[in-house]
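We modelled the chain as a single entity of 169 amino acids. Its sequence is:
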Amino acid sequence: MRIPLRHKQSHLVVDVHSEGNTYRVNVDGEEHVVEVHILDDTNAVLVVDGQCQRVAIARDGKQRQVAVAGEVYTFSAESGAAMENVASVASPEISAPMPGKVLQVLVRPGDLVEPGDALLLLEAMKMESRLTAEAGGTVAEVRVGDGDMVVGGQVLIVLTYDDAPSEAN
């Protein structure tokens, strides 16, 4: 199965071949052997090329947020005509991938951010995750503060992307 994905500004082509609960996964030409052990609806253990990693997975519409080793990755399936402008497809709302505690808000309304800039630190499932901007823009709203408890899917920060197309409301 071939799956085109977008993560931030990267466009990936992932080929997956199932062999029971083991998969041969080819990511942009690099092959990996992956074993999947599902723990529950939001947690799994992946063994990638012999390296064991616990991951947390949250679903947000068509997007999947995966927390691995303190980093949160957001993936979305691309259509056949992949969009070239990240700002036109990136969600302006930065949401909590899972329930947790805001350790530190790193931005304020009006701050300019670049792709990959850290926006806040979130502790969830005893892991510290750094939520980042997918594209360059301006912080429009910060809806949480240091120490706040949040639920999965809760909007934490709203961005306005520089290259986002303007829409009439």
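As a brief sanity check on the tokenised model: The chain is about 0% helix and 60% strand. The longest strand covers residues 10-19.
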